[in-house]
Amino acid sequence: MKILEQHLQDSKPTLAVFMRAGRQDAVEVKYLTEALQAKFAGRANIVRVDGTANQAAMRHYHVDTYPTWILFKDGQEVWHDGGLKSEGELSDMIERML
User: How many domains does the chain have?
Assistant: First the structure.
């Protein structure tokens, strides 16, 4: 959770995805977040959080499913949703916060 906290102190929007390695959707989430990191480099933070290793963060952010996406602006949660999302949907959410 330390890396997420560091990004939340930044004024840039931060999209965090809580995921679990070994799940079938983990590979898709990895490629999706890598594409978003490339697209928003220097403008937004994209962070993958291993839910298994970060149970306190899961409780804190009320994460009960994988993957769960949380978008932060100025350190405050502005959007929270679970399930696989398209790159377009996530890009639109990030663009609105820039």
Answer: 1
